[in-house]
Prior knowledge:
The protein is mostly helical. The protein contains one helix and no strands. The chain has one helix spanning about 1-55. The radius of gyration is 24 Å and the shape is rod-shaped.
Amino acid sequence: MEGWAILMFVLPLIVVIGILSIDGKLKRKLANDERIIQRLDSILAELKDLNRRDEY
């Protein structure tokens, strides 16, 4: 019975640590993706501004 008690404690602990690890990686990737999107938005705004200047 002791083996079951240890297993029932360790298994959920491993699952929680795995979920937290995946969550941390996804949050870092999301932050990086947001920076890329912001940079692309600024480049797009610059291109639109250049196109407006060329029209005149």
